[in-house]
Specification:
6 helices
Length: about 160
């Protein structure tokens, strides 16, 4: 499983403007092999340095909830402008869905959670073979923008663990 996921990560890495969630201390990022997928719509063009507020709130909350091995990914791997996918899907979008389906095939998740409303809509519309529901948590950038850091852990815990 690890080798197949690494091979997929290397394939994604061949594209200069594609992106994967990075490993950080105990957070495995894209290489997480746990049964829970946390899926964004598309990576932004901004750098996601270790001290970036969105990265801190997301990774720190994952750590608090024991989700270090969750598989962190985006449905569309190519960096873009905020809400770019709301204005229309690019021609290569099906290729990215195919890669995401490969991630599902390799890891066999028990739960796929969308990071925000757009990711949830895109997943429901384009990953139709996934039969369980696809709940959503707040996207980490929304949490930072709206000052909801103190509520994020409860939002994540409720959706992922039902508690």
């Amino acid at each position: 499983m690890k080798d197949r996921l690494l091979e997929l990560a290397e394939r994604i890495g061949l594209h200069k403007d594609w992106w994967l969630f990075p490993h950080e201390d105990s957070i495995q990022g894209f290489m997480g092999r746990g049964p829970i997928f946390l899926v964004g719509d598309q990576p932004s063009k901004s750098e996601w340095l270790p001290k970036h507020p969105s990265r801190r709130v997301f990774y720190d909350t994952l750590r608090k909830l024991g989700l270090q091995n969750a598989h962190l990914t985006d449905l569309y791997k190519k960096r873009g402008e905020n809400s770019e996918l709301e204005r229309g899907l690019p021609d290569d979008f099906p290729d990215h869905v195919s890669i995401f389906q490969k991630e599902i095939e390799i890891l066999q998740p028990t739960l796929i959670v969308a990071l925000g409303q757009l990711a949830q809509r895109l997943l429901i519309q384009n990953v139709t073979e996934w039969k369980p529901s696809i709940p959503r948590i707040w996207h980490f950038s929304h949490v930072v923008r709206e000052g909801k850091e103190s509520q994020y852990e409860a939002n994540m815990r409720e959706i992922i663990f039902g508690a």
